[in-house]
Design a protein that fits this description.
mainly alpha; MetI-like fold; 13 helices; globular; transport; MetI-like; transmembrane; cell membrane
Length: 293
């Protein structure tokens, strides 16, 4: 009896130690994440706070909270810099890129994930290998192609290169997710009279919403923040995206720190809105299909 009691006591001691270790590890993890999030949130707060100050106050008291905010920077951003046009251009080009990537990437992923055909593995190998090609290596041929097709300084002049550059990523993410969908759903749909296109639109597309949302936000971010391509392909004032406009503000109004803080704040707002709307799908869309493919 005493040996059994001692054994139970040792087991309880081990369980208690494990609980303490798990609790301590979770506490440290949450502490690190809290510190990282606090530093990120504070940087964003600092930018937005300084956007409500004049340039003199930003220089003298950049860390002071703007209890008496001024809107002159936002007025100048829309009147002098015409940041509203930059917003429209960015949304048109980035939104168009997302639609094209999801359309063609979804169809290609459907074929690669649901059909077994000769050369399928070779196609996957080519897709993975294409991710290693830097975008800088394709600038010259892409620019020559845009000149021949007269697409330079047009919306399509930036949408098509962005679509081609992000298509591989979208195909791999969507194909990995679609490969996890049971085959029985297809068989049941065929019995009910669905054709291939109806199966994709009515069954696979709704089920794959997390993967589509994950691909959409990454494609939108990469397209929205791509300053390098915008400098080369769409440097005309009528089609300049907001990132190119932000670069111009930093060169022409570099001493107006309040205006620069306002421009940065306005540039980040669409990204935050897009993330807030579809953030719940991101983790699920990237983790599903990580093993099967």
């Amino acid at each position: 009896m005493q040996q059994l009691a001692r054994g139970d006591q040792k087991i309880n001691t081990v369980k208690t130690r494990r609980k303490i270790n798990i609790s301590l590890g979770s506490f440290l993890s949450y502490l690190v994440l809290f510190g990282w999030s606090l530093s990120t949130i504070y940087a964003m707060f600092w930018i937005v706070n300084n956007s409500f100050k004049v340039s003199r106050d930003v220089m003298n008291n950049s860390f002071k909270i703007a209890f008496d905010p001024v809107m002159v920077n936002y007025t100048n951003a829309f009147d002098r810099v015409n940041i509203g046009k930059g917003y429209l251009n960015s949304l048109i080009m980035s939104g168009g890129t997302v639609l094209l990537v999801l359309l063609f990437g979804g169809l290609a992923a459907y074929v690669l994930s649901r059909f077994n055909f000769r050369g399928r593995r070779v196609l996957f190998s080519i897709l993975y290998a294409s991710l290693l090609i830097p975008a800088f290596a394709t600038v010259v041929p892409v620019y020559e192609l845009l000149i021949k097709t007269k697409l330079v300084n047009t919306y399509f002049g930036l949408m098509f290169p962005h679509t081609a550059g992000n298509l591989t990523f979208a195909i791999l993410v969507l194909a990995g997710y679609m490969a996890t969908i049971p085959k029985e759903l297809e068989e049941a749909a065929f019995i009910d009279g669905c054709n291939r296109f109806s199966l994709f639109v009515k069954i696979l597309l709704p089920i794959s919403r997390p993967a589509f949302a994950s691909a959409a936000i990454f494609v939108f971010l990469w397209s929205y923040n791509d300053l390098f391509s915008a400098l080369i392909f769409v440097n005309k004032e009528a089609v300049r995206p907001i990132v190119l406009l932000l670069s111009e503000i930093s060169s022409q109004y570099g001493t107006d720190f309040g205006l620069m803080a306002t421009a940065v704040s306005l540039t980040v707002v669409p990204v935050l809105l897009v993330y807030l709307f579809i953030s719940k799908y991101i983790e699920k869309g990237l983790t599903e299909g990580a093993v099967k493919g």
